[in-house]
Amino acid sequence: MSDHSDVRTAATSDTAVDFDAIIVGAGFAGIRTLYELRERGLTALVIEAASDIGGTWFWNRYPGARTDSEAWVYAYCFSKDLMNEWNWSERYPSQPEVERYLRLVVDKFDMRKDMMLNTHIESAVFDEGSETWVVSIEGGAQIRSRFIVTGLGHLSKPYRPPFPSLESFRGEWYQTSRYPSEGVDFTGKRVAVIGTGATGVQLTPLVAETAAHVTVFQRTPNWVLPARNHPLDDAAWREIRADYDGIWQKVFSQNFALPYGSAHRVAADVSAQEQQAILEHGYEIGHFQFLFETFDDILTDETTNELVCDFLRSKIRETVKDPATAEILCPKYPLLAKRPPLGHFYYEAFNRDNVSLVDVSDNPLVDVTEGGLRTADAEYEADIIVFATGFDAVTGAYLTLDIVGRDGVHLHDKWKDGPRTNLGEMVDGFPNLFLASGPHQPFANIPAVIDRSVRWIGRAITQLLEDKQTIIEADVDAVDKWTDLMPELLARTIFAKGMGVHAWHLGSNIPGKPVVVMAYHGGANNYFAALDDEAEAGFPGFIRR
Ligand code: NAP
């Protein structure tokens, strides 16, 4: 990595740009963006707050952290060479393996020289006089660029409940999204795990292997689908590589950017007996494939959804030996109202003598004590508390960074009632600011969404330069139209039921956050088509000059 000691000080009046583009974040999106812009002949600098690359895969190093998408499509597809070189070892690789992969990519394409790590951005301000972005970093230096691309990630700003007495806790506490790299020794400890989302579900069975006791505090149960992880041997890789392009084509044609087909039937097409047989078969295959290749109407038909919920409840009751615990684990809301986690023997963990479940749905945790946690009427002792309490998702990271557009408008003011974008790519009043990964993009396999989003950004910039123009900005009417489309699309799906169950994709997991539709729910494939249409039509929803 270069030290970039040539960045100017705040006092400078020079308006020449240091780089064509500044890219915020060195996670999946930032790395992909650097590759794209370099290929298009632009100079770019990636600025990253962490001490190394990886984004979410740098911070979330808790026990059990692994992908929930199949490895071969939770990856980049921009380089055949890379696709042929890297063999994931498992269907769902663990955090260290994903981190190694991202490091390989960065080293292979010699990217570190264009990255500035350990660098906290304080603000990014559009200078109307020179029509450039001025990025101020901690310590007073400023860097100027023509374009700015944010790769901030949907799930990067941690959320922890504001328990007032946390500092009085005599034990240790950790947040999964800021987990210590040296790890935590749970041996012989009484551990309290708060949170049963995808993170808590991955973590709990592993912590239980060494802890004296694990108490899981559950506010809302989740529909945990069986992951069915397995190693990927040479034969598996030969099969994947025999048609890797075809697999990616499937990804870009599928609603959630996953390499699945559809079931070609709805539940009502078959008898009750066949329905159960199909669900049993799907459950054995596991993963989200269960959702897409059993019945095509799980996401849109409440009766089918309830049929599948009944089936999954029967699986929970079959797996968890204590009937009272099983009942607490059974969700009472539709499947897909929240993003379902994948379980690696999660329900089985509750059959261990050293794991217990506390239902805090009606009797919330109110504070930390010196010796543990408490609800209004009970205390729970713990030596270690693990907060697996999720994120101020999608907009959280954007609103932390002070981004100031035309006329001194701050993005956090513009978005105070929720995000407004055109195509999830640009915001009116914020010229030349692109969102590589941001609101109003699909709720889907993230690396695939990033790939298409960044490709679109590259096309937009190339077009601008070819047309000898300097400014591209979202058209306000197009922004209104795209933003208004978000609730319409959501209403057609069961995801809309997430309003009542603290779903992060609606912001309803964060007290006081506006509950709005933060993602595009019209199908990732349709989103990709919309991006292509916009580019091919010459970017009509954007003002260029
Ligand atoms: P999450 O799904 O938002 O879950 C947070 C958990 O903390 C929920 O169970 C929540 O309960 C609980 N919680 C929050 N405040 C609480 C309080 N005051 N008292 C008790 N419980 C409280 O967060 P996450 O598990 O980190 O997952 C977020 C997303 O990250 C996932 O949906 C997924 O998209 C992604 N993720 C992906 C992977 C992967 O791909 N492998 C792994 C982990 C995470 P409520 O449900 O009642 O709010």
UniProtKB/TrEMBL annotation:
One of its GO terms (molecular function) is monooxygenase activity. Keywords: FAD, Flavoprotein, Monooxygenase, NADP, Oxidoreductase. InterPro entries: FAD-binding_Monooxygenases, FAD/NAD-bd_sf, Flavin_mOase-like. It comes from the Bacteria. Its EC number is 1.14.13.-. Belongs to the FAD-binding monooxygenase family. This is Flavin-containing monooxygenase. It comes from Nocardia jiangxiensis.
